[in-house]
């Protein structure tokens, strides 16, 4: 399996997170549209007419556009949806806190949107039912009066579409994030803190020391460059400083240049640092 195939789930959930942005824009527009219409003179006139009809004939109000706190809720949901424009790139990068925020906001978004849809569906009647009731009570003149000050029909359709799209997008993001977390657990990482951060820094220092020692030729090369004729020369006959070479190599190493002493000392310090490496959690070195 290639790397691109392994991260396919992450790419899908990132695209779903980007889908929340246009859904949020639609919700903000719907909320602003609702608030602006309820602040108009037509809304006040419609409210007065329907109040008179209810008082005279007992006909309850139908489901109308959201007003007040309900419209503000749409705007808040829209802002939360647009915030996914900031979270989506971080989810793609694998930041754990961005995934957690996106998951929490998505669950809350879906629940609030679902409750709003349920509240609309629980209304006792819609405009169509309202008109039928007025017709049955022979108040057809009132129907024309209501339609004259009522908002355009597409306002209600736009609000329902924005709310439904937001709820579906939030549900898709939540399911996608859970799937990506299970399928690619190593993709989402957090910033190391405390002991984990210190251990990570120690591991980096040890890896760097090992790399410098390997690049210099190993521990034997360090002792040779310092002119030592100890254990490394004994393990490798014929090396500079051994009896077979007549000691000429030792003299040559001692005069190998002004920079050799400092380089060997630095590498020797790396060796001692590796020897001082603390044991692992299981007791091994």
From TrEMBL:
Gly residues bias spans: 244-262
Taxonomic classification: Bacteria, Bacillati, Actinomycetota, Actinomycetes, Micromonosporales
Composition bias, Low complexity: 231-243
Keyword Chloroplast attached: no
Organism: Paractinoplanes deccanensis
Membrane-spanning residues: 12-33, 70-88, 100-119, 161-183
Keyword Transmembrane helix carried by entry: yes
Region (Disordered): 218-285
Protein name per its UniProtKB record: TIGR02234 family membrane protein
Keywords associated with the record: Membrane, Transmembrane, Transmembrane helix
